Automatic annotation (TrEMBL):
Cellular component aspect of the GO annotation: plasma membrane
NCBIfam families attached to this UniProt entry: ECF_ThiT_YuaJ
Keywords: Membrane, Transmembrane, Transmembrane helix
Transmembrane segments: 12-29, 59-76, 88-106, 118-136, 156-181
Protein name (record): Proton-coupled thiamine transporter
Organism: Companilactobacillus kimchiensis
Coiled-coil residue spans: none
């Protein structure tokens, strides 16, 4: 491994640590919509930018670390941890798959460099990562959180409403911010040497 490669790895690691810290800090900002358990996850936005900027591997690692930190700092204290399997699915795994947004990194960068509008690509790949995250929450919700469903309501329907609502709320937030940030995508996503 060359010194240039080691230096680049260190830059990516440092950038990932800063983005993960930002995402975690944003988790402490009140984010409930007032509807039972439907929440905005503001940290998804910097994670999406990071995954598009640095790619799949870096995105998955940053999401995984974010999930572990969220479990330790919030999950254990707010009653979000029921047992080890549920904790693994809803924290490291669900947060980690947000990095799937990085699948579109190369395509988005190429489109930016060609001067094309990348809004649709960013929304599509972000939807992939967001959907994966809320899919794991949906599975855990149906299995572990069903007792919180209103009396007589199927726990899977309850989980779909809560986690589907959170997915939709976060996609709306992403679309609004993507439209606002459309002019600065090049500066946010293209890495300068």
């Amino acid at each position: 491994m060359t010194n240039i490669s080691k230096g680049n790895d260190l830059i990516i690691l440092t950038e990932g640590a800063l983005i993960t810290a930002l995402a975690l800090v944003l988790s402490f900002v009140p984010h409930s919509t007032g509807v039972s358990s439907i929440e905005f996850m503001y940290g998804l936005i910097p994670m999406a930018i990071f995954a598009l900027r640095r790619g799949l591997k870096a995105g998955l690692m940053a999401g995984l670390v974010w999930g572990i930190l969220d479990l330790v700092l919030r999950g254990f204290s707010n009653g979000g941890f029921l047992n080890p399997l549920q904790g693994f699915v809803e924290y490291p795994l669900a947060f980690g798959v947000v990095g799937l947004i990085g699948l579109g990194s190369t395509q988005v960068k190429q489109a930016i460099e060609r001067g094309k509008n990348v809004l649709g690509l960013i929304i599509f790949y972000s939807a992939v990562g967001f959907f994966a995250k809320y899919f794991f929450h949906f599975i855990a919700g149906g299995i572990y959180w069903g007792t919180y469903a209103p009396k007589g309501m199927n726990p899977w329907i309850y989980s779909l409403v809560i986690n589907g609502g959170s997915f939709i709320a976060n996609m709306i937030m992403l679309v609004v911010l993507a439209v606002v940030l459309n002019r600065v995508f090049k500066q946010l996503i293209i890495v300068k040497n």
